[in-house]
Amino acid sequence: MANEASSPNRFHAAQALLPQGWADNVRIDCLHGRIVSVAAGAPATPDAQPLGVVVPGLGNLHSHAFQRAMAGLTEVGGRSGDSFWSWRELMYRFLDRLGPAECQAVAEQAYMEMLESGFTRVGEFHYLHHAPDGQRYAGHAEMAARIAAAASATGLGLTLLPVFYAHSDFGGAAPLPAQRRFLHDFDGFAALLDGCRQALREVPGAVLGLAPHSLRACTPQELQALVELAPGPIHIHIAEQVREVEACLAWSGQRPVHWLLEHAPVDTRWCLVHATHLDQDEVRGIAASGAVAGLCPVTEANLGDGLFPMRDFVHHGGRFGVGSDSNVLIDAAEELRLLEYGQRLALRGRNVVSPGALSSGRWLYQQAHAGAAQALGVAAGLAVGAPADLVELDAGHPSLHGRSGDALLDSWVFAARGGAVRSVWRDGRQWVRDGRHVHRDGIAARYRTALQRILG
To answer: Domain named Formimidoylglutamate deiminase N-terminal: which ranges (predicted)?
Structure first.
């Protein structure tokens, strides 16, 4: 799908957040979607695209795109002991209604909404591999190719993380019938990775990693083989639920993160998704490893997971990013807002996460931006060599009017609702104009059609 917007080679921002801080009159020169020079205090030129307030696009480090179609459909009370685990059973039943075309249409809707909210790249934790009966599609990576097509159609940067899933619980327990669409043996998964490489060839700037789903879903031997096979970033669900921690202790005598740090070469390539339930040794261990904690505050709140020990983790130098996970609500600022607010409620204070003099909004944004870039395997920031992923805030928005510098980010994160993002450029190409994706109408129409088939 061709993009109708222009792709200028030069931008001029009235204000921009550079790695070293805010600057005025910033000229950004690009070539083939990459930043080749950045100059502050530069005059505007006729060949430059004029922009107002610009920040680097934020990475969304954890998404299950297909779950966007479930948003709002699991909020019915009355079930005894409703929890993550009962939600998972509903999700399994929902899967039977998703074919390749529906999967692509739902992913396009989710990716469009990510761009409109300020996300410019997604880590797609992709485990929906097979047909509803569990059989492989003729094209082994058919569903991954649909994710790649959705990224191309919307312009969102993609780090594809095909998921290895072979067991239902610790110790290599047999998978459940409801998990049939996820399952691979090791050779089949290696073939899937090859298919994913082919699918990503036409996606500009795409990155391929992989994801052992969890310590429940793969054995120690399979995990070791996956690490050796990994072409890029490695993401894993871990310690999301107390029941998971208890089951891991029963299986191994260790908590999940303890076990992982002792038995796997966890380093800067890794993203530990959720990692909600940690003891102090695990907090220190993740921070020391250089891995990124992948936090998904909106989904974690929706599922009742619990709160990550953020202040202790930050104290030890831990790195983090945010993701939209179940996509029950897609909003970059909301993830950061809830991350801080959850800690304020737990600690009964204000501005409790930022350890230094920076404002909470700026600190959260910069840290989440750096953490997501690391976890998604890309360079980032308004700096030479990084992709030209630019988010222009609407300085005239009621919540941003009259602000400058850090107050702009604080007001976007903590005070603004819809409409604060004016335009989004990804790889130097405009995909959001006046708050709307340039292909919004067509994407929304395809989504509605798919939803009618799914829910009907």
So the answer is: 12-47
In this prediction, residue 6 carries a pLDDT of 62
Write the DSSP string, 339-393: HHHHHHHHHTSSS-S--SSS-HHHHHHHHHHHHHHHHHT---SSSTTSB--EEEE
Residues near 344 by beta carbon (within 8 Å), at least 6 away in sequence: 350, 352
Tally of domains within the chain: 2
227-282-311 Cα angle (round to 5):
120
**Residues 49, 63: one domain?**
no
Q: What is the pLDDT of residues 351-365, one digit of tens each?
A: 888 888 789 999 999
Domain assignment present for residue 331? The answer is: yes
The CATH number for 418's domain is: 2.30.40.10
In tens, the pLDDT along 190-243 reads 999 999 999 999 899 999 999 999 999 999 999 999 999 999 999 999 999 999
Residue 445 resides in a domain: no
Indicate whether 255 and 400 sit together in one domain: no
Here the CATH number for the domain that contains residue 367 is: 3.20.20.140
Helix (H), strand (E) at residue 153: helix 142-154
- Dihedral pair phi/psi, residue 49, rounded to 5°: -75, 115
| Pair 141, 195: CB distance under 8 Å | yes
Q: How far is the C-alpha of 427 from the C-alpha of 114, rounded, in Å? A: 15
399 and 366 within one domain: no
| pLDDT tens per residue across span 74-110 | 787 655 677 777 778 778 878 888 999 999 999 999 9
Instruction: Judge whether 11 and 31 are in contact, CB under 8 Å.
Output: no
Report residues of the chain scoring pLDDT below 50.
Answer: 1-4
φ, ψ dihedrals at 86, nearest 5° = -75, -35
pTM, 2 dp: 0.96
Residues 316 and 193 in one domain: yes
State which amino acid sits at residue 356: G
Residue 199 and residue 151: Cα distance in Å, rounded? 11
* Gap between the Cα atoms of 18 and 34, Å rounded: 15
CA nearest to 165, candidates 197, 101, 210, 122: 210
Query: Is residue 252 included in any domain, yes or no?
Result: yes
Averaged pLDDT of the chain: 94
Q: What per-residue confidence (pLDDT) applies to 95?
A: 84
Q: Which domain holds residue 183?
A: 58-376
Task: Tell me how far apart the alpha carbons of residues 149 and 163 are, in angstroms, rounded to a whole number.
Answer: 18
Predicted pLDDT of residue 301: 94
Evaluate whether residue 357 is within a structural domain: yes
Query: Which residues participate in catalysis according to the annotation?
Result: 274, 325
